[in-house]
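Form 7-S
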Amino acid sequence: MKRLILLSFLFPLHAADWPQWRGADQNNHAPSTAKPPIEWSKDKNVSWKTAIPGRGHSTPIFVKGRIYLTSADQKKSTQSLLCIDRETGKIIWSKVVHQDGFPTPLHSENSPASASAQWDGQNILVTFQNDKKIKVTAVSPDAKIIWSKTVGNYLPSYPFGFGSTPILHKENLIVVIGTEKGGFLTALKSSNGDEVWKTPRAGHDYWATPVVATVAGKEQLFISGINKFSSYEPTTGNLNWEVEAGAKSMCGTIVWTDDMIFASGGFPEKETAGVKADGTGIKVWQNKVVCYEQSLLSHNNLIYAIADDGRAYCWDAKTGEKKWSEKIGRRGVMASPLAVGDHIYATLKNGTTVIFKASGDRFVKIAENKLGDDTYASPVALDNQLFLRVGKVDRGKRQEFLYCLQK
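Output:
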């Protein structure tokens, strides 16, 4: 709650805004006012549907009645930011941020537009891998480029492409370049792109997104990967502590309770773990469940996971005790689960969303709906609407759509 109040004070938001990846407080909990539909199809509870030019795996953000999302057009060799009217789904403008310089080669499960945008109170910040570099650009709400900054070279050992989403902390944008050689964390001033601090963090390729949260009584910057859960001081980049946990390659965002943090991954190791966030170096629990691309979800001292094999898990956060597990779909998960009140929305790669009760007692399925043929972006619920970015394949041609679902 403190995080949400701080962001609202610094960056003017509406009650139903979603200004960056995983929301204003970065925990992937929908606002308490959200009451989205639990049933939908291509013909049921669809408020609008908009065809998205190009391809991208980024989750959209929502600011003051507008939607911003990144996309890349392979034929035109462009990486762009789109602005969409939330009420009608109409594309207001599309701004080309980069022409040419596409990332090649690229993993088949990645895209040239996988990092979500951020809103800093004045501009939209977008991040792309381009010309073998990571570049951040600030775009105004009327589609003008305010500044552009090359953060650093991106020369990973594995040619999979970029996947980490930067996050905002106060007036700074924190960017991760997770490469085996020359990797680092850095903070850029969101108003002009100037470097505030830079901290080396290398050893293996990883694609995790950082998070800032107050845990164990202290505001900390957390990130996983390189077989470590690490804590940094967010205003200076100084290392607080590290715990040996997780895998070399990790993609998900760390989640937390009042005194612990949790993450799952990855490659080549298989581990989900919970560690103390007080600097004592204690790994409290671990298991061999793997959530590689997708993040975990922390809710009421329970940790939820949608594993790569399509099985849902619920663990006691403090002990790691398995409360239940249930097969909810086929193998293949890219989107992260979303908490909406006492429900959890879990979207699988094949476009199926399973809604189940947020409870440690037993698995209770509320509904199951399918839309499109694939989903990489995470769902977002605001007010009485649910937003899904999906792909549809017709005669071998794939087209992306953004859906607004509303009862």
